[in-house]
Each structure stands twice: as structure tokens, then as C-alpha cells.
UniProtKB/TrEMBL annotation:
<feature type="domain" description="Carboxylesterase type B">
    <location>
        <begin position="347"/>
        <end position="481"/>
    </location>
</feature>
<keyword id="KW-0378">Hydrolase</keyword>
<feature type="domain" description="Carboxylesterase type B">
    <location>
        <begin position="3"/>
        <end position="325"/>
    </location>
</feature>
<comment type="similarity">
    <text>Belongs to the type-B carboxylesterase/lipase family.</text>
</comment>
<dbReference type="InterPro" id="IPR002018">
    <property type="entry name" value="CarbesteraseB"/>
</dbReference>
<dbReference type="InterPro" id="IPR029058">
    <property type="entry name" value="AB_hydrolase_fold"/>
</dbReference>
<dbReference type="Pfam" id="PF00135">
    <property type="entry name" value="COesterase"/>
</dbReference>
<dbReference type="InterPro" id="IPR050309">
    <property type="entry name" value="Type-B_Carboxylest/Lipase"/>
</dbReference>
<protein>
    <recommendedName>
        <fullName>Carboxylic ester hydrolase</fullName>
        <ecNumber>3.1.1.-</ecNumber>
    </recommendedName>
</protein>
<dbReference type="InterPro" id="IPR019826">
    <property type="entry name" value="Carboxylesterase_B_AS"/>
</dbReference>
<dbReference type="InterPro" id="IPR019819">
    <property type="entry name" value="Carboxylesterase_B_CS"/>
</dbReference>
Length: 516
């Protein structure tokens, strides 16, 4: 018999599989279409009767690409979320809650991906919520006509969706057996950066109580642009979005112009910017449309400013990256990347190949330095800074790669840890899963279950994972062959990058003082 649950908007009928109940395609806002395109998410209109919740709602409209397998036809009507819970959980149980924000560079992805199935977490006593949010120009758009219309906040509609979904969790998760006072926000890539932005935003209230940020950076935003005052290589959202409109025959910023923009076909708004094209533009130093906006309200400055000032939400955090993660930020000279470091000889020694030659060839050196700048060092910075401010903080690196991918891949790439996290290895490695793969997945998953449940990843049967010691460089490494091992940072360049980052911050502060 299919389970039913009643929430504020009405009754839902879900499904049961293996002791886990799931409720999919639950609307948490009205469809953001027509006159609601580029508006803050509007409250759900209650429904009559019992709504079927056995199938995913549409993932959000996006450009064609091969980022991940989606099981829906993407649509502009996409503000849906999904819940997994232990079958017998009731409103009296007050179970821990995990809210998942998917990645995809803010232009791709969706919760229907089989990788993100929440069943394994629900089987471990956690209520799991996965959410869709508007992507690309649907989610991040700041044409002057929107500002002139004064319909509400402008720009970061995708982040507004995430906040609306968290408010839905606060108001409704108890019906599924979840405790709205024990919410852990978990995200990867764009989702990891989203978690950090929500953690540092001045407008986000007490909607979550722990954070796991995976490959989300932590110093400078991975992807953002100013609202108005742009520059070469960093064009403003208002300017870029106005140029987009002009190319589609919309030249002004009046009500008629806004109406024309809202009449554009979804495929026209989405354009061609999938994850691959976005990455290429970033590598070449071009401006990227359809990504978060520094609006002075929801997103105020860079993440590092909030962490250093203590303005970030003071809560426990687990943060980390994969061994071969994304390079999105680059040293001042892409031609001579090691010139950025004060000690050239030390940098050459740090960035060498496996044969001991120093340095690596130019492209590999640039990628290695940039990956440390983008992902590895910023994760250390966030964990160390939060720990200095008295908050529990754990740092990790996910190096393990599936046995079937070896020897070609001996460092885990961006997003490669996700099927291990969710224990959905079959979604990525059908018929090729080794015992070693399952063991690593079980350990990584168990650490996250413990953190979500108790605010500490440690637990019975797992190697001890100490909290970070500020300004030291030990971490938990999910290694290729030895399981989880706590020990020294495996990349010699990370500490050098930290010194260079701190030097640049100090120099910038001195410059501002002189100007003042």
C-alpha cells in the first residue's frame, strides 16, 4: 500500500521500496513561468485531494549537454523537491534531515539523476530532501527592465529558490519524521558554493544547522559577476543580460520590453551554455552568463570576507575536494604560473611530476596551481578559519577511483565522489563494481551519516577523523588503496598557495588604506 502524508499544501501519495518511503515531485513554489518568470518564488497554491508523488517533477530547463543522466524532460516548470524517509518514520520521530543541492555550474543538472537517490541515507535513519532550482538565465538574470519593474528582488532567483525550499523544509519536514532543528545543508560544486553563499548571506535565517561543502571553493566565488559595475573579463550582469535581450530584438527596459522577454521560448533563454561551454569560457577568461550575481543583498562580496570577519553562520562544517578537482581560478600569469609564488625554487619543487622532474610541463603546472587555488586551499582556509572561531570543522580529500577506471585514472575527478557518497555505484559503474569500491563508498557514506546525525563524522568501526588544527595541513584522505587515512596534505603546493593568497590579501588591504 502506498503511504500518504499530509503537508501544509495538501495530501501526498508516495511509494515504498526496501523499507524506504519516497515522495517525489513535490512542488515547493508555483511554476516560475509566464508573468512569474524572473520573480522570487511564489508560495504553492494548495491542491484538492491526494497528489501523486511517485514520479520526479521536471528538472529545470538547460542547454543540451552530457553532464549527467536526467530521468525527466527539463521544463521551466521545475520547482519541485523529493523526500526519502525510513518507511515507519512518523511526525513524532524528529530524525536528522539532509538537504541536497546538486551541482552543474548553475547551468545543468537536476535531482532526477540516479546518482542522487536518497534511499541509502534514509535507510540509515535520515530524512533526505533533494531540490531543483532555476538554472542559467532562468535562475540568474538582471536585465534593467526587471529592476525598473520593482516586482521584488532581482538577480539570484536560483538562490531564492534554494531558500524557499529550505523554508519548505522548516515548515513541512516534521510530517515526514524529520526535525527542522537538525538540518544539514549538503552541496557539491555549484551546490557546494551555494551552501557556502547561504552560510555567508545576511538574509538567510536559521534554516540549517550544519554544512557539508563539497568542491565548492571557499575563498573567491567559483562563478559570479557584479550586478552593475563590470570590467574587462568580468562583465556586469545588467550589461550582459541587456546585450542578450538586444540580440533577441528587445531594446528597452519598460513594461512592454519585460513582457517580450517573458515571452521568449525557454530554449532561447537557455541558449547553448552547458557545463562544457561554461568551463571553456572560464578557462579562456571570458565572462559567463547565467551564474550568480553580487547583488549587495543576498550575495554580498566574496565568501572569504564573511569567513574572516566572523559574519558567516557559526555552525559545524565538513568541507573538502577531490584529488583532480576543477581549476577555475588562475594565477596572474597563465604563461608563468609559478611566478606568483615568492619562493620560486620551493614552488618548482612542489609542482613536479611523478618522475621527479621539476617543474611539470606548462599546462600541467598551470592546472595544478589553479586547482590548488580554486578548490584545495580554499577548503583548508574555510575549515581552519571556522575552527579558529570556535566551530567544529573537518577537512577531507577524496582521491579514490573505482577499480574499473584504473590505471587510466589514479586521481578522482570533479563530481566522481558522488556515487560513493550516495552509495549509488550502480548508476555509474554498472556490472563493474569491486569490493574495494563498496568499502570506500561505505566509509565515506558512514562519515557523512554520522555528521548529519550527530554533528561529528566519527563513529564505531571508522578510522578516527580529528578536527582540523588551524594553520596546519592534515586532513582525511580517502586514498587509492589504503582506505580513509588521516595525515598530511598530499599536495605540497597547497601551503604555498595559502601564503600567496594571504600576501595578496595583505597587499590589497594596504592599498585600500593608502587610498583612504
Amino acid at each position: 500500500m502506498n503511504p500518504t502524508i499530509t503537508i501544509a499544501a495538501g495530501a501526498l501519495r508516495g511509494s515504498v521500496d526496501g523499507g524506504v518511503a519516497s515522495f517525489k515531485g513535490i512542488p515547493y513554489a508555483q511554476p516560475p513561468c509566464g508573468p512569474l518568470r524572473w520573480r522570487a518564488p511564489q508560495p504553492v497554491i494548495p491542491w484538492e485531494g491526494t497528489r501523486d508523488a511517485t514520479e520526479f517533477g521536471p528538472d529545470c530547463t538547460q542547454a543540451p549537454g552530457d553532464f549527467e543522466t536526467l530521468r525527466t524532460t527539463p521544463s521551466e516548470d521545475c520547482l519541485y523537491l523529493n523526500v526519502w524517509k525510513p518507511q515507519d518514520a512518523t511526525e513524532h520521530d524528529a530524525l536528522p534531515v539532509m538537504v541536497w543541492i546538486h551541482g552543474g555550474g548553475y547551468v545543468g543538472g537536476g535531482t532526477s539523476s540516479p546518482v542522487y537517490d536518497g534511499s541509502s541515507f534514509a535507510a540509515d535513519g535520515i530524512v533526505v530532501v533533494t531540490l531543483n532550482y532555476r538554472l542559467g538565465r532562468f535562475g540568474f538574470f538582471a536585465h534593467p527592465a526587471l529592476t525598473a519593474a520593482k516586482e521584488g528582488p532581482v538577480g539570484n532567483f536560483g538562490y531564492m529558490d534554494q531558500i524557499q525550499a529550505l523554508e519548505w523544509v522548516r515548515d513541512n519536514v516534521a510530517a515526514f519524521g524529520g526535525d527542522p532543528r537538525r538540518v544539514t545543508l549538503v552541496g557539491q560544486s555549484a551546490g557546494g558554493e551555494s551552501a557556502l553563499h547561504l552560510m555567508t548571506s545576511p538574509v538567510v535565517g536559521d534554516l540549517f544547522h550544519r554544512v557539508i561543502a563539497m568542491s565548492g571553493g571557499g575563498r573567491r566565488a567559483l562563478l559570479d559577476r557584479p550586478m552593475t559595475d563590470g570590467s574587462v573579463g568580468n562583465a556586469s550582469a545588467a550589461g550582459m543580460d541587456k546585450r542578450f535581450a538586444v540580440k533577441r530584438g528587445v531594446f528597452g527596459d519598460g513594461t512592454d520590453d519585460l513582457a517580450k522577454l517573458r515571452e521568449l521560448a525557454p530554449a532561447t533563454v537557455a541558449g547553448r551554455d552547458n557545463v562544457g561551454i561554461l568551463g571553456a569560457k572560464k578557462l579562456l577568461g571570458g565572462s559567463v552568463a547565467g551564474v550568480p550575481i553580487v547583488d549587495g543583498d543576498l550575495v554580498v562580496g566574496e565568501p572569504y570576507e564573511h569567513f574572516l570577519s566572523g559574519a558567516a553562520k557559526q555552525i559545524p562544517i565538513m568541507i573538502g575536494s577531490t584529488a583532480f578537482d576543477l581549476p577555475l581560478h588562475f594565477p596572474p600569469s597563465k604563461i608563468r604560473p609559478l611566478k606568483w609564488f615568492d619562493d620560486q625554487q620551493q614552488a618548482k619543487a612542489a609542482y613536479h611530476d611523478s618522475a621527479g622532474r621539476s617543474p611539470l610541463d606548462h599546462v600541467k603546472t598551470l592546472v595544478a596551481v589553479s586547482t590548488d587555488m580554486t578548490m584545495h586551499e580554499p577548503a583548508h582556509f574555510v575549515a581552519s578559519t571556522m575552527k579558529k572561531q570556535g566551530q567544529p570543522a573537518w577537512l577531507y580529500r577524496f582521491t579514490y577511483t573505482a577499480q574499473c577506471r584504473r590505471p587510466d585514472s589514479l586521481e578522482q575527478g570533479h563530481s566522481g565522489e558522488l556515487p560513493f557518497l550516495f552509495q549509488t555505484l550502480e548508476s555509474t559503474y554498472p556490472d563493474q563494481i569491486a569490493d574495494e569500491d563498496r568499502a570506500t563508498a561505505a566509509a565515506f557514506h558512514a562519515y557523512v551519516v554520522n555528521f548529519v546525525t550527530h554533528g561529528d563524522p566519527n563513529g564505531t568501526g571508522l578510522p578516527a577523523w580529528p578536527q582540523i588544527v588551524p594553520d596546519e595541513y592534515d586532513l582525511m584522505n580517502f586514498t587509492l588503496d589504503d582506505g580513509p587515512v588521516f595525515g598530511p596534505e598530499p599536495r605540497a603546493g597547497v601551503e604555498l598557495v595559502a601564503r600567496a593568497q594571504e600576501r595578496d590579501l595583505a597587499n590589497a588591504a594596504d592599498g585600500r588604506r593608502r587610498e583612504g
